[in-house]
Amino acid sequence: MRIDVATLFPEMCEAVLSESILGRARKKGCLDVNCWNIRDYTLDKHRRVDDVPYGGGRGMVMQADPIYRCYEAVCAQAQSVPHRIYMSPKGAVLTQQRALELAMMPHIFLLCGHYEGVDQRILDTVIDEEISIGDYVLTGGELPALVLIDTLARMLPGVLPENLCFEEESHFNGLLEYPQYTRPAVWHDQEVPPVLLTGHHKNIAEWRLEQSLAVTRENRPDLYSRYLDKK
Question: b or e along 164-194 (b: 16 or more beta carbons within 10 Å of the residue's beta carbon)?
Answer without folding.
Answer: eebeeebbbebbbbbeeeeeeeeeeeeeeee
